[in-house]
Amino acid sequence: MDLFRPKPYAATKVGDGLSRGFELVATTAIFLGIGWLVDRWLGTQPVFMLLLTVFALVGQGFLLYVRYEQEMRGHDAVRAEQQRQLGAGSDAEVAR
Questions:
Q1: Residue ranges in the chain modelled with pLDDT below 70
Q2: 65, 78 in Cβ contact below 8 A?
Q3: Are 26 and 36 a contacting pair, CB within 8 Å?
């Protein structure tokens, strides 16, 4: 029965969203832990922990923005190609 089988496109997008969310949380946690270890080693409570956490969040925000822009450029290119093909098809019908 195919009622509960997810569509490939939807499943891919859900997987992308989950992986990006996990990457955001995991990267922030790793940098937080490294900052905590460096602070503990140098005795500079919580300077490096905060700096590295903010660094990770800013970096992840930048990556999310870049990936979003790439996806939108891809969608725009597909849409422009579809409109070009539709426009060429209507010109060919007028010429007949």
A1: 1-11, 89-96
A2: no
A3: no
**pLDDT of res. 14:** 80
What does pTM read for this prediction?
Answer: 0.72
What is the distance between the alpha carbons of residues 51 and 46, in angstroms, rounded to a whole number?
9
Asked if 35 and 67 count as a contact pair (C-beta separation under 8 A), the reply is no
Token code pair at residue 94: 């007028």
Question: What's the 3-state SS for the chain?
Answer: CCCCCCCHHHHHHHHHHHHHHHHHHHHHHHHHHHHHHHHHHHCCCCHHHHHHHHHHHHHHHHHHHHHHHHHHHHHHHHHHHHHHHHHHHHHHHHHC
The amino acid at residue 47 is V
